[in-house]
Amino acid sequence: MPNWISRLLGGGANAPAESKAFNGQTLLTLSQLGAANWSNRGFASLVSQGFARNPVVYRCVRLIAETANRVPLVVSEHGKRLDEHPLASLLARPNGRQSGGEMLEAVYAYLQTAGNAYLQAGVVDGEVKGLFCLRPDRMKVVAGTDGWPVGYDYTAGGRTMRLRQDVTPVPSVLHMALFHPMDDHYGMAPLEAAQISMDIHNAAGEWNKALLDNAARPSGALVYSAAGQNLTQDQF
Fold first, then answer.
1. How many of the other CB atoms lie within 10 Å of CB of 98?
2. pTM
3. Domain boundaries, position 154
């Protein structure tokens, strides 16, 4: 019967005495793992750690935005499509910097990364002549006494502008928000729900890159002196 089975069954009474030596070297150090470090759940952090750094997040956001943008928006009246209409022209060219497709793509991307998207109406002579997509991180809801928004503060370049909702012919801002069970005003971004998976993917990439930079050498090794440190067959 093999020696290790004999010892397991209690037959090791006559086994040779084991001789162990310690030369002062630490062979193995065990330490408790600390708590995991997760990225901040704010918009800026999610964009920098996700959209700007993680190829999976980037592709998902772009794919959703580009696919949604392929759905054509049409103007109809009494069930009849109107190709010539001021609203159709506005949607085709909402402002001097963006086409309608570019603006809508930004709206869809902001919904995925921030959970919120904002369109500002540019009114001239009582008519909406332009639509402008505003960055979510620059917007702040101004709540009234009843808790509902009466305006939005837009901050850029160190200056804050109040965009009121009690104006004509339309409110200054159209706020689109995804469902958030814990917030009355702001939406919850899908990227926020995917934060843990995103951080794990990023951390795995960093670890793999560090291993490659180290020529695939392990970060630690068990070292012992060659002289007199070999285990006997029985000790093994």
1. 16
2. 0.77
3. 43-196
